[in-house]
Amino acid sequence: MTFWRRNVSAKKQIIYAWPDNFEVEPGEWIRADLVSQLGQDVFSKEEDLENESFSFLVERRDPHGNVIKVLEDVIPSSGQAVQTAQGTPAFSVVIPVYGMHEYLRVCLHELAKTVPPGTEVVVVNDKPGEPIDWLPDGVMLVEPGTTCGFAGACNRGFEETTGRQVVFLNSDTVPRGDWLRQMRTTGRRMMAGVVGARLLYPQSEKTQHAGMFYDPDEGVFTHMHKNLPKEAMDQDEHLQAVSGACLMVDRVLFDKLGGFSTEYGRGYFEDVDLCLRAIQLGDRVAYCGSTEVLHHESISMGDKSRQEWLDQLDQAADVFRDKWPLERIEMVTHEYPAERTPRVDIVVAVHNALRQTMNCLESVLARTPDWIDWQVWVVDDYSDKFTRDTLVEFCRSNDRLRYIRNEKNLGYLPSIQKATEQSDAPWIVYLNSDVIVTDGWLAKMLNAAESDQKVAMVNPYTNNAANLSTPMPPGCGYLETDRRVDEHSELRRFDIVTPVGFCLLVEREALEECGGWDVEYYGRGYGEETDLFMRMTEAGYRSVMADDCYVLHEGGGTFSQFGDKKQFEQEGYRRFMSRWSARINPMLRVFNKQTPHQYIQPAVCGAAGVRPQVVFVFHEVTLCGGVLAVVHICNQLLEMGWDATFACTKLQESTLSRLGARFRPLVYPGQSNMVSSLRKNLRNADVVATIWVTSKDAALVCEGREDLRPAYFIQDVEYLFKFPNGIPYSSKEEVVATYDLIQRQVINSDWVQATVSEHTGRQSGHKIGIGVDPLVFYPRERGEKVRVMSHCRPSTPRRGWDFLAQVFTQLKIRYGSDVELAVYDQDPGPCPVDVNLGQLSPDQLAREMGRADIFLEGSKYQGWGMSGLEAMASGACLVTTDNMGIDNYGTDEHDCLIVSHGDVDGMLEAASGLIDSRSDRSFLQDAGRETAELFDWRYIGQEWDRWLRETR
What we know:
Blueprint lengths: L1 E5 L5 E3 L7 E3 L4 E3 L17 E3 L6 E4 L5 E5 L19 E7 L3 H14 L5 E6 L13 E4 L6 H10 L6 E5 L3 E3 L3 H11 L4 E7 L6 E3 L3 E3 L4 E3 L14 E2 L7 E5 H7 L12 H12 L3 E11 L10 H18 L2 H8 L9 E8 L3 H14 L5 E8 L4 H12 L4 E5 L6 H11 L4 E5 L3 E2 L4 H10 L4 E8 L15 H11 L14 E5 H6 L5 H4 L5 H11 L3 E12 L11 H30 L6 H5 L8 E4 L7 H15 L4 E5 L4 H7 L6 E2 L3 H11 L3 E5 L2 H11 L5 E7 L17 H7 L6 E3 L2 H11 L5 E2 L18 E7 L8 H15 L3 E7 L9 E2 L5 H9 L3 E4 L8 H8 L3 E5 L15 E3 L4 H13 L1 H15 L4 H15 L1
Parallel strand pairs: 8-9, 8-11, 9-10, 13-19, 20-21, 20-23, 21-22, 25-27, 28-29, 28-31, 29-30, 31-32, 32-33, 33-34, 35-36, 35-38, 36-37, 38-39, 39-40
Antiparallel strand pairs: 1-4, 1-5, 2-3, 6-7, 11-18, 12-19, 13-14, 13-18, 15-16, 17-19, 23-26, 24-27, 25-26
Helix pairs in contact: 15-16, 18-29, 20-21, 24-27, 26-28, 27-28
């Protein structure tokens, strides 16, 4: 048994504990058997934590990779039993000062406006004769008592910092905007331990400095971009050196380098020297093109005469030439950065799920750093014809994509094995087709892989990954969640148990050494990545978390081919446990008690940051057309840079999982609580009512607040809604009264807009229609029989099932078994249907509609008529009533057939004509699909984006 205890005393130094000596902060947990040197006062018996231990081989290595010692019976956390201290700042800024304090005042003034909360600022006074006694609160002053020069002052300031990223900033600079985070983002995207900023001349704001290149002909470092427009130097780039006037360096790297070299005297060449040593050590140097830092240039040198500084420059140059002769520079910079460019193959196995696949591929193309040598292997596991044709065309349009297809459905594991055999990249990412990646994702995962030569598998954070799941904070989308994870990550790179295959970076050499994927044992898949993890663990490799990276895992796409998913998962689990249960169970118990992956959750959920900019308001949320429309709109707004979500008072988790939301909604215990909380927490937001009963909520939230703007999304004439007994859901007077409550309106159809305008006596609302996803609703393979399909909802009389049932009865009499009659949703009663599909998810509905030849829509009135548009997108001939909504997209005898509501004979003859004529069906199917493609949700999202911006 292994005992864990909490340090309840002061900070203690632990001697001879594995893997190194370290200090234990009060409140931290530590293994008791590793700290026998400590006195009993360190521990509290009441807080003992008992854990089961297990045998686990760990190699301890020196900096050169040589094995020093092999230890047994330790947890798989590579010595992270003592957790990183909480509250470590993300950034520390060190400002060396040599007189000229008026520039320092300006610099500190701008820092106060631009650095994130919690940033350490350290000022080092390198001119003892001019004391500084006026620093703002929170700024640390370091006074060495003697002049150290630039390098010495920076090193002295570094000793007082604790930030994970340390920035050395000249006192004569004026940083702008979100410069610190921009530099950190560049560092992570470019996998660079040293990052320089774009320096601009204060007067002209033209480029002063954007990194340096070594010129072998001249034998010096130079930059050819002075006085270029700043827009010309706005791209991140790997360089050989950057300016020390604004230089960010990873704390661990700076320690390894021993800081700036002080052999150059008072100044010059320290920055180039640091960059060259970093490259020599195997790291990278990058330039951040998004920053804007004004630099007065040479002011920070103080009051020395020009000749004195020229003399210093000459002396420093002599030192540099002696230390860095031409041969050494060329040896260090030869083929850099090309030799540091990782090569990665990304494998995406696909079986239908076309919309999710396209979301995945488009996000990879848009958000994977171009400087990495990567390509995507799209393995089509015998998808349907429409999916195949779409993927082939898409892959032909981009050189990064390669398409291969299985001649029959093999399953996930044989599909990724096929790509693995054809690939030769040193690193492979196995990416589920239902994952949407975020900015810089691959660089962050590679960064984690490079943190230790024994790392062979890497996972990012995500919302849906078994025991590694980290949910999005309420009100946040996946992009905002990634931003928060990136900001609050401590880069712990902790070891994980049971890596998950949704987004898994694997080193090829380790994969091959450990025998590769066990296709023979696991068949079509499931459990194979955990099996590989166990084999890699036994071989001494590590599996870690890229704890600065978050991706969205929509779920349900990759394994949709297997039918009963639960049964499929249980079979994979049974196979795995029959082989590994004795080894994995104790590992899981330790991991689940430690929950190292959850360290970031409090910071991410409690982070102050961007609040939702657009909030749609519901009461109870169910799986219905109006809710799905809002989810689609929010998803599109997220991709356009808005923070969009919805708020509600009741939402089941099972419903949320089926909505396809790329965000976490805000759920409150009641209506009054929702109103008061939104009013308290929202800033500069649009609050959108979604139905008449929420219009008062939206108005109350925004009442008296100029920064909150109410809006009203009117999707139907709601006073016409009735219960099965004919009693209206709400009175006409109540609904109509809300039309004047909020003047800023979006109305989805001509009929609804005309109705609202009639009641208000003015032209009301801005029309934005409803969309359809043509990559979800598309034609599928049809059977030999003509299939006639309809929505069956007797509980809602306006849907027209009473007269549709008569049409179905006549069709059965006329055609018998030659025609297949199918319905979905509710029980059709005595009506003679061949297939009752019951309630369907959106994906299931799309598959069934895609197999239909004809779709009958019988509603008396529709605000829009979503099912009709979905049927057209699915390639079914639409026969519909004149239900008001059809006027928004359908034209009789062009892309649909329109009859009067209740006209049994008219609908019967229209359907019969299509059943009898294949050519008429083909014409209407093609025309309907062409019309539906004009109403893509992306277009609808763009319309909402435009309207929101214009009416703010």
